[in-house]
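User: Structure tokens for this complex, please. No commentary.
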Amino acid sequence: MKLQRSGFVAGIALTATIALTACGSDNESGGSGSGASAAPGSCVSGALTAQGSTAQKNAMDEWIKAYQGQCADAKVDYQGTGSGAGIEAFIAGTADFAGSDSALKEEEVAQADAKCPGGKALNLPMVIGPVAVVYNVQGVDGLQLSPATLAKIFAGGITKWNDAAIAAENTGAKLPDATIETVHRSDESGTTDNFTKYLSKTAEAEWTYGNAKAWKAPGGTGAAKSDGVATKVKSTPNTISYVELSFAENSDLQMAKIKNGAGEYVELTGASAGKTFENATVKGTDGDLALELDYNTKTAGAYPIVLVTYEIACSKGSAKAKEIQSFLKYTSSTAGQTALAELGYAPLPETLRAKVEASVASIA
Amino acid sequence: MGEYPSRSVNATAGDSGVTSGYARGAGSGVSPSSYQEPPLGGGSALPKKTRFSVETGFRGLSTAAGAMVLVIIIAIAVFLVSKAVPALQANTANFLTEKTWFPNDAEPVFGIAALAFGTVLSSIIALIVAVPIALAIALFLSHYAPRRLATPLGFVIDLLAAVPSVVFGLWGRDVLQVPVRNFSVWLNEYFGWLPIFGGEGPFGQSIMLGGLVLAIMVLPIVTSLSREVFQQTPGMNEEAALALGATRWEMIRTAVLPYGKPGVIAAVMLGLGRALGETIALALTLGITFNISFNLIENGGNSIAANIANTFGEANATGRGALIASGLVLFAITLVVNMTARAIIYRRREFRDSAA
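Assistant:
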């Protein structure tokens, strides 16, 4: 009885404290907020909700952290629900902008444009994610592969590491007489989609499985998520796979040099991946920057296996145009792009970045 | 309808004729409502029935709860079927015989054959490995171990059941895979003439790895239920066996095991249920290929639940419907297994009761 009563008293005390602190903190945040938003000129206060591609989730998290640090009253929420779900949410009006691994498809364009009265939906390339070809073969550094050989390995045409085709591209390397174990993503993923798209565009004769988010070629071993692929290759000798650059770097995996359209074997770095985009043609018009990638790029020093993810936003007519513009202005700025380097993404090359920035500036 | 009043009148009249004391009580207790039902036997002494008592209230509540289960199950079934049917209609292959799973394409092609096969095979491997070990542990805990050791050991085994499956999955992927690969290479070298251990490799991320991880997950369930059953063996039976000169093992064979058989079968079926439905541990440890092969050690294997975990994230409407259809197949498999188990237990019980 006594205990109960003291508990009751404690409860009242607690409620009172919470109520008081709530009042206090309310006042405080109001004060500091107005002070902070006055300082940088480009801040627009307000909340944004967005969702879509998981491939750019890490980039978004980094940007949101930095952006909210600058603009205390701005709030951005990005959920990595998948590209398809992001576009669906944008069309349904539950997302202010969407992240997507591919530009809007024809049947989606009309529906998305309907959300932008007086304007249209823009595809804004924002994040470049290079895909590394990783392998685990003892004593073989700097493996060099052409697209045709790479396609044959993953299609099961080449089964031994000392196959003549691999040996011809790696003169002097001590290739072991071991069975190649190819590893692919067992879950559906934009990385698989882009990797198989690269193979189908550069090695049409050797790769007949087209491109899709699911792995279509027979054979090979599946591993769940990028982390699963990286762990598998790290722990199993004689494996080869493909994974985003950040996972390859974090697990300290050996990365193959890939032959580009100019005939050189190029090592993967942020800069070499960005070069592939320098000559990418823009399919879209009026600020829409949907890209047509040339996987057979002849640009010197360009690493060709890359994926680009877009932000899909209204050019006009969005109720939150000011907030969207303010956030995307930051992400497409030089500061925003260089912030991604440590996360295993490549910054947009300056020519393309300037176009994106101009497009963002026209949002009204 | 017309008969009742006259009958009940007769009955009360007869009653009052025999025991006048009770009749008076019954007379006062019988409210108009009692005329509508025939009073039975000595019902006159029961407490009088009120319209809204705790009894009727509780009866109503429990009936509602029971009905709710049915309503929920039917609602779930309707929802699942309504999602699955359009996907199945869009399928351009035979759902039951097709092995691949590409429901998100423009022309969806998907089938359950390889997935269902992998689900059943991995579960069977898990049970073959886990059940003998689990029964041995249970017998040790209930009949061999000193009490001071048995109680804490029992706790530890129960704790094992509380470990999340993703932990087992990661452990299987990162730790168990290398020893299993080495063991597989050894098996392939010396027992390669057996089809289940044949093949060219690569080895390791195989249905055997998945089955072993499942076995560890099933172990605590089977152990802890069997131990409970074995502990309930009547002491008289055990003492009788010992008094007839049986050794400890003979006593267990003649008294404990026959008594525990239905309980052990139930425990194994519960374990099988967990193995069939296991999702993330298999998604992490299996090699995810879409083919039907009895080879246990080559990279490969897949299961219905693992496939759902792997492909749900990027699935479109048809893809989600296809996954729900695969879930219904898993449900059917589990139902068949459970009904078989119940049939076995029921038959055993009858057999034992009639023998006794």
